[in-house]
Amino acid sequence: MTALDYARAGKMQMALHLIYEYKKGVRSLALCTVCPTCAALLKERLDRQGIAYLTQELGNRNVNIFFGERVCLDAVAVFVGKPLNKLTPEEDFMLGAMLGYDIRQQCRRFCDRKAKVRVVS
Fold first, then answer.
1. Cα–Cα distance, 17 to 13 (Å, whole number)
2. Taking every annotated instance into account, which residue ranges of this chain make up the domain DUF2023 (predicted)?
3. How many CB atoms neighbour CB 53 within 10 A?
4. pLDDT per residue as tens digits for the range 63-93
5. Does residue 9 have a pLDDT over 80?
């Protein structure tokens, strides 16, 4: 196996773990960034398990796959049409909170990003 094969296998294991957490109710929304081959396999798995998902093609030949509760995906769909690094501080905060990131870190990140926006304006 090549290093790339190991990396892909690791990403798929992480995706399967996120599916497990979703099915156990630990999270309502998950995000995986994978190669197109892994994306096809992951979408097939999500379809078989009846889990809703949303994809975002990335310019570097990777794919973001958001999956989870439909209401969460509906919210993500509002801003997923642009690269994640182009989200407003509010969108970034909301996405991080929905993905279950540490809320204190999200608050710090939000304040830092808002301060940068004020300096640029």
1. 6
2. 14-113
3. 17
4. 999 999 999 999 999 988 888 989 999 999 9
5. no
- Environment class of 108 (CB within 10 Å of its CB; exposed 0-12, middle 13-18, buried 19+): exposed
> Which pTM was predicted?
0.88
Nearest to 65 by CA among 27, 18, 31: 31
39, containing H or E segment: helix 36-48
CA–CA distances in Å: residue 103 to residues 19, 66, 67: 22, 20, 20
DSSP bridge pairs for 54: 66
Does 33 or 7 have the greater pLDDT score? Answer: 33
Helix (H, G, I), strand (E, B) or coil at 79: coil
Contact 56, 66 (CB under 8 A): yes
25 Rama sector, left if φ>0, alpha if ψ -120 to 50, beta otherwise? left
Hunting for tokens 């926006």 — which residue is that? Answer: 117
* Greatest Cα-to-Cα distance within the chain, rounded to the nearest angstrom: 50
